[in-house]
Amino acid sequence: MNTPFSIIIADDHSMFLDGLTSILSEEKSIKIVLTAKTGTQVLKYLRINTEEKIDLVITDINMPEMDGIELNTAIKDEFPKVKTLVVSMLEDAKKIKILTEANTNGYISKNAEKTELLKAIKSILNGENYFSPRIKQILMEAMFSAKSEPEISLSKRETEVLKLIAQEFTTQEIADKLFLSKHTIESYRKNLISKLGVRNLAGLTRYAVEKGMLE
Amino acid sequence: MNTPFSIIIADDHSMFLDGLTSILSEEKSIKIVLTAKTGTQVLKYLRINTEEKIDLVITDINMPEMDGIELNTAIKDEFPKVKTLVVSMLEDAKKIKILTEANTNGYISKNAEKTELLKAIKSILNGENYFSPRIKQILMEAMFSAKSEPEISLSKRETEVLKLIAQEFTTQEIADKLFLSKHTIESYRKNLISKLGVRNLAGLTRYAVEKGMLE
DNA sequence: TGAATTATCACGGTTTTCAGTGAAAACAAA
DNA sequence: TTTGTTTTCACTGAAAACCGTGATAATTCA
Question: Does A151 map to a domain?
Fold first, then answer.
């Protein structure tokens, strides 16, 4: 019989880690060589055990220290032969896009059935990529809707002023805080309003909060 | 040997469900009689199989149709003999508090180790409740910090006006929309500002967004 | 180096918000 | 039935925001 495939699993939720390990240990063609809770642990292992052939790294996206996206790019950069499969809770189009651009070999949701998980793993180990139909669909939708959002980019100053506005400071206060003229801040407010397509302070504030620009 | 304990597991992420099943099927004292993806499935099963003795329901909080909190209260209401263990991703003090008040028998995080999971299950099956140290700590902190938040309650109209303000409507527009005088809306705005302890529209908007009053 | 973007400032006029103060009617709860 | 809350409306003066329409210097980047 062939030697089993060597797999690393990374997820910060130990229960999920244990569960996945338990599921995969039933598969005789798979050998789990490491389970890790952070991306850094995985990278460290790969760097130390360079002589060991690792076939696949299964990773979550949300992890402390080094998340799945960073881990993925690092692996593809340093160990291009190692395949990666992302198993994530979220179905965030942007993150999926970044991951595909970083040459992830597969992406499935934690909603996926066990059979789909095994299918994905086998496909990848066979040299094919695997993205579940749902993920493909989300990617497609993102492609189309992306064009409708022309990506508003704000300069440093604009961002700074916007934050202060959303924090309830008045024009005069912001001017004092930044050692600028009150007129300057007024210009910024005006620009921000037209740039972001909103009508007033409320709109600016909502934009700032929803984009997570505060705290 | 004793008859094994009958357990139901509910979680909308099938991978987690499979993982947990896989872990627990190693335990001989445990028999998994049902795995479900929604709370309603669990309730339906309990209602049909009334003669069957179910010892424990392990459930996530976030689930479609009927979440873990509703499921828990329903179980405690209809089937008080059935124990419940909540296994959740989130460590939200409020939800934990609601669950303890609804007589949940245990609460552990998905961060918990396998050993802790088994410990929790065994404790509960032995008639004790189990809350992990971390959860206890969060609960304690919530108790103390709760007093610092004096629970601001807004009336229907106040909420309505606040929403419209946060949606960038001017006083006049809101007045027209609600068939009220402009002065009335001004009063509401003023009251809201002092009630919520903010300074201006930005503060009101932030409050509305952060409380999830919009969508 | 030249073009584009960013950062800065200015002014007059209009609208809106903010702060203070007050009050009447409707309604629910105790 | 009294008390409290909610909903409704009104006026004033000051402050701030909003609108239009500029301009100049600094920086960045192609």
Answer: no
